[in-house]
Amino acid sequence: MFSHFKQKLFKYILYPFARVYWKILRPKTYGARALVLYGDNVLLVKNLNLPYWTIPGGGMAKGESPETCVIRELKEELDLDIDSVEYKLGIYTSGHEGKQDEIHIFVVKLLTTRFVKQWELADAQWFPIDSLPENISSATIRRIQELKAGLRNLFLPW
């Protein structure tokens, strides 16, 4: 019951308020996300405020490194305990939502498919990397294509 309340609070009150703040002040924000892999499968999530699949992650706390951020976010969103990432796919920039985002994308390989979706996500599922769902974000598709091409340390627009 309480987690349902948190979901509604975030989706209908906090997120719309944040969007107005971003449009007015245009802050510089930093985030980290991960392409979480198990063999030929990728773990995708649906956030509460978005109708499409994307890769897990979130915003960096002040003074936090991108790698520490993605490890923390994977624990908070999916109850994944990881010690390190495999490598950095790249750093991406975005002006979406009025913010000036810098997003660090890492590759994380797991030895198990076990995860526990937490309240801040609407859904989380494994998908074969060559059979992705239809309602996936275009940026997520580009990141997966870059991964499949063996690219690393990119610096591109989101």
Could you provide a short overview of the structure?
The chain is of the alpha+beta class and 158 residues long. The chain has helices at residues 2-25, 66-78, 138-148, and strands at residues 28-38, 41-47, 53-54, 57-59, 87-94, 100-109, 121-128, 154-157.
Verbal overview:
The protein has 158 residues and is an alpha+beta fold. It has one domain: Nucleoside Triphosphate Pyrophosphohydrolase. It is built from 3 helices and 8 strands. The chain has helices at residues 2-25, 66-78, 138-148, and strands spanning 28-38, 41-47, 53-54, 57-59, 87-94, 100-109, 121-128, 154-157. Strands 1, 2, 3, 4, 5, 6, 7 and 8 form an 8-stranded mixed β-sheet that branches. The longest helix has 24 residues, at 2-25. It is globular and about 40 Å long. The relative contact order is 0.23. The mean pLDDT is 89.
Dominant shape: globular
* CATH level-two architecture: Alpha-Beta Complex
Distance between the termini: 36 Å
| CATH overall fold name | Nucleoside Triphosphate Pyrophosphohydrolase
Class by alpha and beta content: alpha+beta
Series of H and E elements: HEEEEHEEEHE
Strand count, sense and barrel status of the largest sheet are: 8 strands, mixed
Strand fraction: 25-35%
Helical content class: 25-40%
**Uncertain parts:** none
Tell me the CATH superfamily: Nucleoside Triphosphate Pyrophosphohydrolase
What is the radius of gyration computed over CA atoms, rounded to a whole number of angstroms? 15 Å
CATH class: Alpha Beta
Tally of contiguous helical segments: 3
- When the domains are counted, the total is 1
Number of strands: 8
* Overall pLDDT metric: 89
